[in-house]
Design goal:
There is one protein chain. The chain contains 4 helices and 24 strands. The strands form 5 sheets. A 7-stranded mixed β-sheet has the order 1-22-19-24-18-16-17. It has a 7-stranded mixed β-sheet with strand order 3-2-4-11-6-9-15. It is mainly beta. It is about 10% helix and about 35% strand. The chain has 2 domains: about 200 residues, Jelly Rolls (Sandwich), CATH 2.60.120; about 100 residues, Jelly Rolls, CATH 2.60.120.10. InterPro entries: Cupin_2, RmlC-like_jellyroll, RmlC_Cupin_sf. It comes from Pontivivens ytuae. It holds the Pfam family Cupin_2. This is Cupin domain-containing protein.
């Protein structure tokens, strides 16, 4: 039986060349973090903090104000909650089909199969934490054609293998390997263009609503019977000071704890660690653990558990 593994927020190692838009003006200051599993990074030098995957991946994106992540799509679930800052999420072929602004603690289960992007619209460096479905996170990212074309104009070429090559560093596509083909108009027509009214009520949960729901028991955020009803291969709960289990417990599934506010004391088998906001803990099945707030004041965290559901489509439009 292995022990819990903890990745500290202050020890996260960023990659600034993780994706195809790393040189594109307006997107060239992004920092990508892969916390659990390899995520969907296209860079060979991306640091992975915990290689083991519990049926899903955990990552994060850090961006200064006015920096944006370009339009892309995923085949499996992509869930974000805002750890720091204020963020605008937008979607559609050109990013104009709909949008929503998320504040700290808000969570967005972005539907699969639609193009999406996001930008930090706050006044300071912001961080969003991500949960990606599947052990291999769906096999990569599908970029809108204009993103690939603009990236090539700034020296980055995405190979058909999914690997990124930087011509500014003297890199070139290997012999026999072609560039990633652009999606055809026929293929693009298969990507939904849902409106804000169609997406937000079913895919967004607000922090203060969850705080109220989790006053006495954990709030079910994502799951078959949750606020955001879905079966993406994992389930998400929201816990507060008033809803944390008082006794030691054991989970039969892998469990990831992601502290949002306050400090949490995690105890297991004679060991104890304190989780601060932004820290991530991976706890294997069968380990008896106790979790409780370490200080007075506001305390909240997201808990993610693997399920037997396939990490499949979530868009029900």
């Amino acid at each position: 039986m292995s022990a819990p593994q903890i990745v500290r927020y202050g020890e996260l190692i960023p990659c600034r060349t993780a994706f195809i838009d790393a040189h594109t003006p307006g997107s060239d200051q992004k920092e990508n973090f892969t916390i659990i599993g390899g995520g969907v990074s296209e860079a060979a030098d991306q640091h992975v903090h915990i290689q083991e995957t519990p049926g899903f991946n955990i990552g994060a994106a850090g961006q200064p104000p006015k920096c944006r992540n370009s339009l892309h799509s995923h085949r499996t679930a992509e869930v974000f909650f805002v750890l720091k800052g204020r963020w605008r999420f937008f979607w559609g072929r050109h990013g104009t089909a709909g949008e929503v602004v998320l504040e700290e603690g808000d969570i967005f289960n972005i539907p699969t199969g639609i193009f999406r992007g996001f930008e930090n619209i706050g006044t300071d460096y912001g961080m969003i934490m991500a949960i990606l479905g599947g052990d291999d996170a769906g096999g990569g990212v599908i970029w809108a054609p204009q993103v690939i074309e603009e990236a090539e104009a700034h020296g980055l070429i995405l190979a058909e293998t999914g690997r990124l090559y930087d011509t500014k560093r003297g890199e070139a596509l290997p012999e026999g390997v072609g560039p990633m083909p652009l999606l055809s108009e026929e293929e693009l027509a298969g990507f939904p263009e849902p409106t804000t009214a169609e997406v937000v009520p079913h895919y967004v949960a607000r922090y203060w609503d969850l705080m109220a729901l989790a006053d006495r028991k954990p709030a079910r955020v994502i799951g078959a019977d949750a606020v955001l009803r879905d079966k993406p291969g994992f389930e998400v709960d929201f816990l507060t000071r008033g809803s944390i289990p008082s006794d030691p417990y054991v989970s039969e599934a892998h469990e990831v704890l992601m502290a949002m506010r306050g400090h949490w004391r995690l105890m297991w088998e004679g060991h104890a660690q304190v989780l601060a906001p932004g820290d991530t803990a991976l706890i294997p099945p069968g380990v008896e653990r106790t979790l409780f707030p370490a200080m007075t004041g506001e305390a909240s965290l997201y808990r993610v558990r693997s399920t037997a559901d396939p990490a499949g489509p979530t868009w029900r439009g």
